[in-house]
Write a structure and sequence with these properties.
The protein has one domain: Alpha-Beta Complex (Maf protein), CATH 3.90.950.10. Strand 4 and strand 5 form a beta hairpin. Helix 4 crosses helix 5. The protein is α/β, with parallel strands linked by helices. The protein has five helices and seven strands. The N and C termini lie close together (9 Å). It has a seven-stranded mixed beta sheet with strand order 2-1-3-4-5-6-7. The radius of gyration is 17 Å and the shape is globular.
Length: 204
């Protein structure tokens, strides 16, 4: 399993997956390069959305497909934005504008809230073909808190506002290798790779 289609058009996610899987000899092809549009994400849970995206990309490409569904969940907001994280503030005029508006809305909703705890959550799904009855599924959480003023120029999404108490830095202030070692996506992907090794389904 050397060539995988990534069911995402998010350039930040593509960079992270290529950085994590490239050294393992896996070629990650974004679905847009194959003319595959984004799948609908109508479900209430991360795992259902990830499965829908992976099956859609595999069906359109004929390749094994990798998808993740992830987001930030704020304790004071009952877990929101959750599965709505990517378009929390509605459609933007581009990825950077979308991220800015999403962050502004999250910070505004948390104004005057004493509880700033939040966590990133990620589910990664790998299907070997579109109708795979046994998809590989991994998940992880990354604990932190939301701050009002953005810090750092790395990462993407909510990273500049996601403070990591153990580091004293935001996710956007971490170096890429630091982030991949401790993030929700990095740890979930490590679980997935470990399962592939156990199953002998690759040279990861």
């Amino acid at each position: 399993m050397k060539r995988l289609v990534l069911a995402s058009s998010n350039p930040g996610k593509l960079r992270e997956f290529r950085r994590l899987l490239g050294p393992l000899g896996m070629e990650i092809v974004p679905q847009a390069e194959l003319g595959i549009a984004d799948a609908e994400e109508p479900h209430a849970t991360f795992v259902e959305n990830a499965l829908a995206k992976a099956r859609h990309a595999s069906r359109g490409s004929g390749l094994p497909a990798l998808a993740d569904d992830s987001g930030i969940c704020a304790a004071a907001l009952g877990g929101e934005p959750g599965v709505h994280s990517a378009r929390f503030a509605g459609a933007g005029a581009g990825r950077d504008d979308q991220d800015r508006r999403n962050n502004e809305k999250l910070v505004a909703l948390l104004e005057n809230k004493a509880d700033r705890r939040a966590h990133y959550y990620c589910v990664i799904v790998l299907v070997r073909h579109a109708e795979d009855p046994e998809p590989l599924i991994a998940e992880n959480r990354w604990l932190g808190e939301v701050i009002d003023t953005p810090r750092g120029g790395g990462g993407f999404g909510y990273d500049p506002h996601f403070l990591l108490p153990d580091f004293g830095r935001t996710a956007a202030e971490l170096l890429p290798d630091e982030k991949n070692a401790v993030s929700h996506r990095g740890k979930a992907l490590a679980q997935l790779v470990a399962r592939l090794r156990m199953m002998g389904n690759g040279n990861a």
